[in-house]
């Protein structure tokens, strides 16, 4: 963004805090050195809650230690540092009057110096709970006049989950416009990360056909000592994966915009990439905690000796995207504290389809197609101890921007991912810069594509929050820390899930087998129960296909089966879909493309991911002659005839049912006039909740099935489960009590929450 010449006031809130001391003042000093001749004038206002004199003393102790970049001449640097100190002053910002006084001071200075105001930057290096009050003060008494811009810089954490992020975003939106807010993820300032998109853009000709498999890793040797109050609230996923590593993932997976320099296009492509990510489940992650963490928490937070922390300090997460480009490609995000080394990298590992007859020792790295093919964006630390981009020589020689990256020649005997450095083309930045100095420079330039928008932030939390909720009480693998971890944290991908390679002994009796209403009962925690149910459906399908050549499966609507559909789609690759006919147990009288439609949900969560022949899918004909469920259209008769024509003896191989809190099943409700008895096999019914009109298989037809599985999930179903365990056959009161296959088997799948409350 081109900025008009004029005066810029930079206000650093939290000016004496750790982040300011380590990075922000240095970044502001480097901005001043770079821009001192740009035609802008600057003043720098450090602010905190500390009173004037002690605050001033603390701040100037930091400013005196500011370092000169190595490529800067000592004389020029000394002059500029002296000027920077003179242009910096400390303010106590505690009350509304303090903000009014700061505004008055800025206006007075501009008037005295005869300067035009270009804009103001407010950098919030303070805890998020302070954001709202500070935002209110800035908005009411510290905004620049019309014609000058305002840029408000916010540091993470931006919320704890989707709900808290939405609340914080709404509060800030009442004071600032979206274009005024710059949410910092300092990883976007890391030179290797920032170069992912330009690299993809400049090397489109090589990459378009091969972009393939990814690992994104941030390893730390340090532990959480000294910051357990923060860490205990957030843990490794919120601290690193939800923000830093997710942003790197977006740069890898998003479709390239026509112009990678246009912030709006980049942000739009990022959002589309978020929307393609497949939802995470508990088994998408492996979690650990270093052994000393619990005692550090007890000591620093004064917790009792028996306090058990469930906060992970290590996580490995497997992510999939459902976009056409990334179908079947795994993305691994990994981060942890107290590991064997400190390193960060984004590694793209390409599939290798070559077979080489030449012995390995005779293979030339530049030409052998049998050596690993990879592109690595090396963020820093580790063996290289600097940012770098590495491309295997058997891939291509990359195009790199000459002014900012240079090829590293005269390579050492280092090995990176099992290969000598000489196997790669290696590039490093011409000038190595700290992430914060790059981001501060981009704030000055108004480059929004280096920052997190509200939409982007909420999309990320929407993706991560379900996983965070599902693992909140999951047992963690304890690890000693450092090199002693050995193989304890190694993990592998198995059938779309991740699991530690070295297994811990587990209880084999995760599911309880007993009786419910005189029929077999399978009970477990919901995730294990769904896993068991999916396996049982697959076994039934395989057995039936082997016996009769096809499998007729009737599926219910509602929310309970969604997790089952997802499980079948992602983990049951041996399922005989080719020989399976899919029928619906019930349907809402809405168009099949409506989000309320059972078929729409079935399609979204299962059918679009598996290879069921088109002619084997049988949606209920609720939408005929451009109207919904009208008796004269004879939709129920059509479906009944289709069943008779295709299903032997109109006897489904397996019917999956759910149970409502009122005891309804399929779309057969208490006191239903149709479907509980009689000769009709497909009926129209009325639901007490919208949409009221439904089409449903009748109870007599359901009872002709060879097998009926009833799935009951969640605490909300505990009361009806308890009631059903006590009542007899009373389908007019509780339709599900009438489910009793005449010559088949009924099995109940009830999770512990529904069974035990």
Automatic annotation (TrEMBL):
Keywords: Carbohydrate metabolism, Glucose metabolism, Hydrolase, NADP, Oxidoreductase. The keyword Lipoprotein does not apply. GO terms for biological process: glucose metabolic process; pentose-phosphate shunt, oxidative branch. GO terms for molecular function: 6-phosphogluconolactonase activity; glucose 1-dehydrogenase [NAD(P)+] activity; glucose-6-phosphate dehydrogenase activity; NADP binding. It holds the Pfam family G6PD_N. The keyword Oxidoreductase applies. Its EC number is 1.1.1.363, 1.1.1.47, 3.1.1.31. It catalyses: D-galactose 6-phosphate + NADP(+) = 6-phospho-D-galactono-1,5-lactone + NADPH + H(+); D-glucose 6-sulfate + NADP(+) = 6-sulfo-D-glucono-1,5-lactone + NADPH + H(+); D-galactose 6-phosphate + NAD(+) = 6-phospho-D-galactono-1,5-lactone + NADH + H(+); D-glucose 6-phosphate + NADP(+) = 6-phospho-D-glucono-1,5-lactone + NADPH + H(+). Residues 526-748 form the Glucosamine/galactosamine-6-phosphate isomerase domain. Residues 199-484 form the Glucose-6-phosphate dehydrogenase C-terminal domain. This is GDH/6PGL endoplasmic bifunctional protein.
């Amino acid at each position: 963004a081109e900025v008009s010449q004029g005066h810029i006031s930079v206000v650093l809130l939290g000016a004496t805090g750790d982040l300011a001391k380590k990075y922000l003042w240095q970044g502001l000093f480097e901005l001043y050195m770079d821009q001192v001749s740009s035609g802008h004038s600057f003043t720098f206002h450090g602010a905190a809650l500390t009173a004037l004199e002690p605050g001033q003393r603390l701040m100037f102790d930091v400013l005196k230690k500011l370092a000169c970049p190595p490529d800067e001449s000592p004389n020029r640097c000394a002059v500029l540092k002296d000027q920077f100190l003179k242009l910096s002053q400390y303010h106590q910002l505690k009350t509304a009057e303090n903000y009014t006084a700061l505004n008055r001071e800025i206006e007075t200075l501009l008037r005295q110096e005869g300067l035009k105001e270009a804009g103001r930057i407010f950098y919030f290096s303070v805890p998020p709970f302070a954001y709202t009050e500070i935002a209110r003060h800035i908005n009411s008494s510290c905004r620049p006049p019309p014609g000058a811009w305002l840029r408000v810089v916010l540091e993470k954490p931006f919320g704890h989950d989707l709900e808290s992020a939405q609340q914080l975003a709404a509060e800030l939106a009442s004071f600032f416009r979206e274009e005024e807010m710059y949410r910092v993820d300092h990883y976007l300032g890391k030179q290797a990360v920032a170069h992912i998109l330009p690299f993809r853009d400049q090397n489109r000709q090589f990459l378009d056909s091969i972009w393939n498999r990814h690992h994104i890793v941030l390893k730390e040797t340090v532990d959480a000592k000294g910051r357990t109050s923060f860490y205990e609230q957030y843990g490794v996923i919120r601290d690193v994966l939800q923000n830093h590593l997710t942003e790197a993932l977006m740069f890898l997976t998003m479709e390239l915009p026509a112009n990678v320099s246009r912030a709006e296009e980049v942000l739009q492509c990022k959002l589309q990439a978020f929307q393609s990510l497949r939802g995470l489940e508990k088994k998408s992650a492996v979690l650990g905690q270093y052994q000393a963490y619990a005692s550090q928490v007890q000591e620093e937070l004064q917790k009792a000796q028996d306090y058990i922390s469930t906060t992970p300090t290590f996580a490995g997460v497997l992510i999939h995207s459902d976009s056409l480009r990334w179908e079947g490609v795994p993305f691994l995000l990994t981060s942890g504290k107290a590991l064997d080394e400190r390193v960060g990298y984004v590694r793209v590992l390409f599939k290798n389809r070559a077979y080489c007859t030449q012995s390995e020792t005779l293979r030339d790295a530049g030409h052998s197609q049998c050596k690993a093919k990879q592109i690595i964006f090396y963020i820093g630390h580790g063996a290289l101890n600097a940012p770098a981009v590495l491309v295997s020589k058997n891939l291509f020689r990359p195009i790199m921007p000459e002014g900012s990256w240079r090829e590293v020649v005269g390579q050492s005997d280092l090995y990176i991912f099992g290969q000598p450095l000489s196997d790669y083309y290696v590039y490093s930045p011409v000038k190595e810069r700290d992430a914060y100095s790059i981001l501060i420079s981009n704030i000055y330039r108004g480059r929004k594509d280096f920052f997190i928008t509200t939409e982007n932030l909420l999309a990320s939390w929407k993706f991560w929050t379900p996983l965070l909720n599902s693992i909140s009480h999951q047992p963690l693998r304890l690890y000693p820390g450092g090199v002693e971890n050995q193989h304890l944290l190694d993990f592998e991908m198995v059938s779309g899930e991740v699991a530690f390679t070295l297994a811990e002994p587990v209880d084999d009796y995760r599911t309880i087998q007993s009786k419910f209403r005189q029929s077999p009962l399978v009970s477990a925690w919901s995730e294990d129960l769904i896993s068991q149910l999916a396996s049982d459906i697959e076994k039934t399908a395989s057995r039936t296909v082997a016996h009769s050549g096809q499998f007729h499966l009737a599926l219910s609507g509602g929310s309970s089966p969604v997790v089952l559909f997802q499980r079948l789609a992602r983990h049951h690759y041996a399922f005989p879909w080719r020989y399976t006919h899919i029928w619906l147990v019930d349907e809402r009288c809405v168009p099949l493309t409506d989000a309320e439609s059972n078929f729409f949900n079935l399609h979204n969560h299962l059918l679009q991911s598996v290879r069921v022949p088109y002619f084997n899918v049988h949606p209920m004909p609720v939408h005929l002659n451009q109207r919904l469920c009208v008796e004269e259209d004879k939709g129920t008769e059509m479906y009944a005839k289709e069943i008779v024509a295709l299903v032997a003896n109109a006897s489904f191989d397996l019917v999956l049912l759910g149970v409502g809190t009122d005891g309804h099943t399929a779309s057969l409700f208490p006191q239903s006039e149709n479907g509980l008895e009689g000769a009709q096999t497909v009926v129209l019914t009325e639901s007490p909740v919208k949409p009221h009109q439904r089409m449903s298989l009748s109870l007599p037809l359901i009872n002709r099935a060879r097998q009926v599985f009833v799935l009951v999930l969640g605490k909300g179903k505990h009361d009806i489960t308890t009631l059903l365990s006590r009542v007899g056959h009373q389908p007019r009161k509780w339709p599900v009590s009438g489910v009793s296959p005449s010559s088949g088997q009924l099995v109940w799948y009830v999770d512990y929450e529904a069974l035990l409350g």
